[in-house]
Batch of 2 targets.
Target 1
Amino acid sequence: MPAPTTAEATASSQPTAGNGLERLYTTDLASEIEFLTARARSLGSGRANNMLAELDLKVRSYSVLSLACSGQNPSQRELADFLSLDPSQIVALVDQLEKRGAVTREADPRDRRSKVIAPTAAGRRLFKRAEAIIRQASDQSLAQLNDQERETLRDLLRRIAF
Amino acid sequence: MPAPTTAEATASSQPTAGNGLERLYTTDLASEIEFLTARARSLGSGRANNMLAELDLKVRSYSVLSLACSGQNPSQRELADFLSLDPSQIVALVDQLEKRGAVTREADPRDRRSKVIAPTAAGRRLFKRAEAIIRQASDQSLAQLNDQERETLRDLLRRIAF
DNA sequence: AAATATGATTGACTTTTTCAATCATATGGG
DNA sequence: CCCATATGATTGAAAAAGTCAATCATATTT
């Protein structure tokens, strides 16, 4: 990030602060919810990925690990549907997590085609650490919102995301 | 039918209804704002891209076109910063729009390295049509929220996106 | 039992992202 | 004014992510 002469003018010291970009903040595009959503997630997942890097994880693999640790015994198909990913991407993600000993593919007695993704003990430990990092990252990304605003945001997003 | 689990579905409420996926809605991950943001934007931009396809545009090119039409005379560097894209991606985007006669690269008298992206008359017409489509797409994606809720969402997102 | 559908997997292919290098032009310091 | 350094646009390469079709094993339907 460049550090222009006099950074930090207002409290809004996130990215793009202090340059001449405020001009574009007033455009119609900058007010579109879809645009803001895309930008928020870009900033958020960027930061989360950076911080998760120390665990050699990304938001994607963290999501899979999190669901594996959820107690809901998700199958790969369910992971694909829930995460809006192609089944082949789930294969790759699970391969990596399995290779590092974080999860296992368990047979589903009720459908032998299906593989349930379960965490190992090491996987649970990894998840605990990742969870803490994600919490920090999220906290930084949402720094401008108080708890109640975060609750409101969560609820609104939930209604358009599900 | 290309999109797996993305748009499509019935125009009404909850997609992914009726399968066994509700189970995962209760997980911690499903309550994380960052996860919901990612999912909302995935659904939203998926739908918008589908609908913009008839104009041979995507959300990306629409964004560039929109900023070009904003009256703010953005340079490519500013587009890159504002859209969080690599400068080389802007080159490609502008190339396409320029090739189809929607925008031009104007010299900036104050900095001859810089190129200001300006719309042509045809570009403005294209933008008008795209804007209408984006409005429809957005309206569908936000169907679960009333006007006031949309305002609230917009404001909350703006605060974390800028 | 046969036909059909589904979950996981592989491989090919396209698109998107990310980086390093280059050229032209600006800018700041002697 | 000249030099060193920084920046905007561009290209090209490489990595990552997303899309698709085909296959195998197992379920389900008829």
Target 2
Amino acid sequence: MSYNFNEIEAKWQKYWSENQTFRASNSSDKPKYYVLDMFPYPSGAGLHVGHPLGYIASDIYARYKRHTGFNVLHPQGYDSFGLPAEQYAIQTGQHPALTTAKNIKRYREQLDKIGFSFDWSREVRTSDPEYYKWTQWIFIQLFESWYDLEAEKSRAISELEEVFASEGNSRVNAACDDDVEEFSADSWNNFSSEEKQRILLKYRLTYLAETEVNWCPQLGTVLANDEIVNGVSERGGYPVVRKKMTQWSMRISAFSERLLQGLDQLDWTESLKESQRNWIGKSVGAMVHFNLYGETLKKVKDDGSLSEHQKRISVFTTRPDTIFGVSFMTLAPEHDLVKKITTPQQKEEVQAYVAASAKRSERERMADVKSITGVFTGAYAEHPFTKEPVPIWIGDYVLAGYGTGAVMAVPCGDQRDYDFAKHFEIPIPNIFENADISEAAFPGKEGTVIANSDFLSGLEYKEALQKVILELEKTGHGYGKTNYRLRDAVFSRQRYWGEPFPVYYVNGMPQMIDAQHLPLRLPEVEKYLPTETGEPPLGNATNWAWDTKANEVVSNKEIDDKTVFPLELNTMPGWAGSSWYLFRYMDAGNEQEFVSKEAQKYWENVDLYIGGSEHATGHLLYSRFWTKFLHDRGQLSVEEPFKKLINQGMILGQSAFVYRLEGENVLVSKNLLGKNEVQPIHVDVSLVNHSDELDIEGFKKWRPEFKDAKFLTEKDGSYIVGREVEKMSKSKYNVVNPDDICEDYGADTLRMYEMFLGPLEQAKPWNTAGITGVHNFLKKLWKLYHNGEEFEVSEEKASADSLKSLHKTIKKVTEDIEEFSFNTSVSTFMICVNELSAQKCNSREVLEPLAVLIAPYAPHIAEELWSKLGNSESVVNAEYPVYEEKYLVESIKNYPISFNGKMRFTMELPLDMQKDEIEKTVMADERTQKQLDGRTPKKVIVVPGKIVNIVG
RNA sequence: GCUCGAGUGGCGGAACUGGUAGACGCGCUGGAUUCAAAAUCCAGUAACUUCGGUUGUGCGGGUUCGAUUCCCGCCUCGAGCACCA
């Protein structure tokens, strides 16, 4: 019987599904293991061969863990809210729920064909109200929490209210908005309830605030920082502008230090951790206050609109030790003080500069790093130690969004300050011992000795740093401070297809819908575009008001602002649902809780997470944040979501090209190009065979505009296409569909070939031509168990050679799986089958364990062989074979004999032969004498069991 | 500019803590089988070579009996961050 993979694979896929083979139980005596793939977005284009790479790797590992006695959780589901379905809805009017359902169906069919061991009984979809009910619930928990910086922990907002009522806010060390005013217990108790709500909003972990956001007009929504790449939107590449809008934000910045520290405990790649460290951007330094000087101070003092601490300029610096090198200050053009301090003489120039830089987009500002621009304000600040006046400039090299939006400029130590000073002819005092600053600034830290700096002179960097901070604190001119680049995350999207906020507004103040009334379902709308008045698509809904008496959604007409109030019109961003989904899988059907305490305690968190590196600073940071938050509030026993994480490399496509002569309807075969000016045109790879020959007729049919084109072909009449490795994408016509591979070669071949391509983490090109090697291997494997058409295994004892082949393979494959080196284990299987074939081994003693060994990689053929071997239970729970040393013991070693480090010949010697004995035997060999050619060796190095090297 | 990866045959890649460079597979060449093709099987396949050898893991040095592996200095490619004070 030949290897009929189509039949075998269909049979076992049906068996697994009918028997719920991969259903995981929440109670087991076995140790648990949780394997998770990154949440897929079910796109309309379906899967190409690059998508399943990570799924196959995680599936092999999950199956392996099951064989070795673990209770494995390996779920799958869909991150099904998102932009593409909504863009499609805008174009076609079709409800995104319909397109999404259709795409999911297709996705599932494709996944099923590859034979994954997913527990589909736990499937979740973020767009399912039974799921987003809990996303909304978590949002409410965030709203009801604040961050205690003292305890480094999220706490209930009610506890904060108690503190306010008993002692005011002066001693509260909380993560909050910058503009919180101090108040006493008395004033708190006298505040109106509305005033109290307004203040509490400044402390909540999710809060409503007018912030400068990244607005993308083409997408009609705001974007988070991680959704912008090089100043344009990641999706679509549209321009992004800065705009002030009232938005929901998440106070993730409160967690900066913990998000940073937590990385050390994680088994993630260094590069991924590095990305997160960069993103969090910790810098240690000091806050320094510069009082305003003379006339400037007088001018500002008269301005009643400023609070006391606004009447000075605060800067953040990592080098407070260089404070005596300050020769000017620079404010961001957007800085609040700019207007207040500018002198009348400078007013015109400053206003023009501010206006010009406001017009420049973020992108322009980033692109244009070289040109130095700035204006003097005419104002002066007072140096905190020398009391000398320091001129205040504005310049757009200072970012409004980082630190305080102002810097103390130390041109001798910072290149940007240096360039600015040179350009505007500002003095550059040198405060470093033995530093040459005639050409460039001197940015050195360790070992640098400070000079010309009063009480800091003669001190080394570290000592100076400590001393100056002490002095700043003593004189009230500043304090030591750590700054983070991580900004709070904007949480609102002006889109339809996302989770509705469980929020209604009373007098403009947000109120939470009581959790027991969730989910708040997405309303039906006529169209998915923003309203004519510029409100988000939910503004089109006619039933979108909250009745606080009936606790239900009612018609907008009933809004009376007494018992019926308007609902929030924004929806949540994509990362809301994906920040906690890993926990939902633990207890997917639970209607009482987002996950039960028992289920979560049992599964803890994800042991192995596999997915793409594009989520480094988005999803992976946000889900760490939510996990820490839910842990703080007693909802989770763990503080991190993903213990081990592997980024699979991208599978690239091999695009094919035809070449058109410039301006002519003539296509030239690749080898005839010569020096002609040609224009390469993508060809669908399905029109090209393994020898790169184009199906000319097929091509003409595909692109009718070339039906009359002239083809300059090779001598044999073939047209050879050019090849190039590019990202796999529809637009490049280089997509290979896994369905076709499964149809032609089978899922087992696909699985093994994807692994065989190379190391999991590495990017590598797909080449369908190479798949025959793996397919032949499976055929050879099949043959081992068959004699001609008949299944036949022998009950006789296997030969020593065969047992050695088997155990060598067990050892190597087990090591490889543990190290996620799947490509080398496929090679190992090939070697094993080649050896067993040569040995004509068909002994059950070898073939039965081999079937289990290969089951994680090629599960269908393994099941079939396993059942033919007479087993009635599925192979998935069969015990994994254990390697036994005794089969591998060697008595002879084929020693390489090297001369001056170069191997010349080999010699078989007993492994127990002693060093001097080996030397004698080797030296006595005639080949040795021939190599030496009469010379006497200086030295003979013998490493028993390894090598012999003769020097001289 | 900074950080992190990576450079090995025609191609994908292998080589565990320094010890036979190129495993395994693709492709290619030759052969068997076949009326023929596909499929299958066998042999060969780093380069150069006067067939003795010589050179070879991005480049230049170093350590070592011995380096793809360790150290120093460069080059190239990829990824991330990027006026972050």
